[in-house]
Amino acid sequence: MKKNLEIIDTLIDWPSWMNNHSFVVWRKPGEKKYKGFKASVEILHEGLLPEKEAFIFSPFNAAGKYPALVLYPKTVDSESTGFEKTFTSSVPNDLPDEKSTYCERVETLTRMMKEGSLHKCVLSRRIDNDGPDESLAPDLFIQLGNRYPDAFVSLVHIPGVYTWLGATPERLLKVEHQKAHTTALAATRRYEGVLPDISDWNVKEKEEQQLVTDYILKVLGDNHIDSIEYDGPRSMQAGNLVHLKTDIHFSIPPRFQILKLIKELHPTPAVCGLPKEEALKVIHSIEPYDREYYAGFMGPVSQDELELFVNLRCMRWVGGKPSLFVGGGITAASVPEQEWEETYFKAHTLLDVIEKLCNLAGKNQDAL
């Protein structure tokens, strides 16, 4: 990056930007160094990728009311794009799901799968939180980075619009020159000190993971990619959880249509379902809220590299009010009570850090 850009290396002053500047900060899996910048925010129009170094922030539903955004490093002498004045995000007036309601939706989905062509559908829920204050987002970001070294940790802030924070374990796509890497990640258990052997996972969990792997391999095959190597499935720890994971590596030819591949990969069955179009229709009809940027994708791009992650284990503030987003893959073998518990475990990726930070700050918080 150019030297006249305000790049975050030491994280000395960036928390002071919260009230006055749009910015993005992130930390890649396995790395210690945080990166980020004050940002100029623009809408990323369909069919385009940034032509210069930037950070993409895209919603779950590309056809919905929330636009795909691109955040560019803001030069010292550049002016604001005015995005903050043209786009507002209102506080939701719907109520989050109670346990009984969520379990009823799981039962509806399992019945549909037994009677029809739907194989899997990801059902999510929003958890409205009484704390923490939005001003604590930078501290939460640092705590998440310390606690989850193998996650992609990110903070996107647009004053007067919203703040999004997350620590996701799921890579959507990495491309560097002609080498590419994606991940099939599905099935969830609590981590109990030892990674389970592949033989310890039950039929429903293995099926859920295989559906994601098969879908990705089919997309790659349909795009005439045949130099594919994959490793897995195997157990992978993600904080207090364990997932089944398969890493998929492949080569792409010069002038390959990366955007077309991203569009076909996202949303994967890990956050949507199968068949994809049918699952999307069911999600829009059965979930009582807009997912916004939850289960969308994000990440840094440049001329030489693109690395995108699915926005999971995340929360956002809008109008000063925080909410968490969690979900789980439903199949015909799903048990409603267990699916509810799975979302509870996933929520604690953030809730444990929130509770610790609020206690240190002398603030009480009632998460659930």
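Second entry:
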Amino acid sequence: MGHRIVVLGGGTGGTLVANRLWRSYAHSEQVEITVVDSNDRHVYQPALLFVPFGLASLDEIVRPRSKQLHSGINYEMSAVDHVDLPANRVHLANGREIDYDVLVVATGAVLQPEETPGMTGPGWMQKVFTFYSPEGAGALEGALATFSSGHIVVNPIDMPIKCPVAPLEFCFLADWYFKERGVRDQVQISYVTPLDGAFTMPTSSRMLGNMLAEKNIELVSEFNTGEVDGKEGRLISYDGRELPFDLAVVIPLHAGADYVGRSPGLGDQLNFVPSDEHTLQSKARPNVFVIGDAANVPTSKAGSVTHFEGEVLAANVRAFLAGEELAASFDGHSNCFIEAGFSKALLIDFNYDTEPLPGRFPAKIGVPLLKESRLNHLGKLMFQWFYWHVLLPGRDIPGLGSGMPHAGKLEAPGDGTDEQNESDEKEVHSNAG
């Protein structure tokens, strides 16, 4: 009998790592791979940003989970009740039990709107929305179509969240959307964040803050929302400040999957799974690995991170089963196309130790970093094809491994970085209107 690998979660991380393992074992009988998920709807989450603006439809971005897995992989459709770590056994909500030699936790992050007082009360899905779920994105499309004047607030309640730049992208696209409709002068847009700036890292925060200013989008920083009053149209912070709105786009609190909290020793207080940030082996048990948003590693909860983790995790699962040393090779690599509106986007690329830098990606001949361009916008649009046909099937992208590339980046002292930053920011500003 071969090794039993059980993958909890059939989203981006679970699908790509199951497919990578299936491919790396050359479709042999050395392993039995089972993927577990509670439903058969695989959502291409980056496109949820476009749905409210009529730029994508839910029909285009949802596919069956089971169809994304190679035919030799078992698919079990059930919620997880809990994991018995000492027994190496998963207990499913449908009553089944599955034993494993290696467990991969890939159940992502879940939205918790009910954790913020008032959010799901009066006004929910009427004047208080989120685009982080298919249902919310679809409802918000209808609300925006009839919104011609008033105050829109975009508010991530707290970090961490999936794709931390998406709320900023929403602001930029809203600016474009209302300009296209000829009503931008009648619409006030505010970006309301608990952070002390537009983003977490200094270079990106400065540049994205400048873009907000150029687009006449108000930045309200250090606002920690404690209550959403949908009836009266108010965000109320923990320190008592109030911010009125006519339409609120909120990004709810995130946590790990509920079953993690019912599995003693597996997760932390937020139900994320503590993991080694370089090997992706859990701190709960050596035969448990974690990928994607379910992990508490100190990098973005973004699809690109999951992609880069997949290569390392699959290799380390194989090494563990072979009794070999794990490779501590994941460097926190993340990159993200930031949609800026007007058919332009920026690209940022960073890891645990290096914040976003100007230059080119993935090498000296490549797409521009920290600079608005139509090429980056096309890259973001084309990524959807790569997602379904390259990333999920577990294929490598030629010339792009898991580690952050340094070629093409302007990062050494005296290399012109300061001048490049200034030039890039000027170009961003000139393109922002």
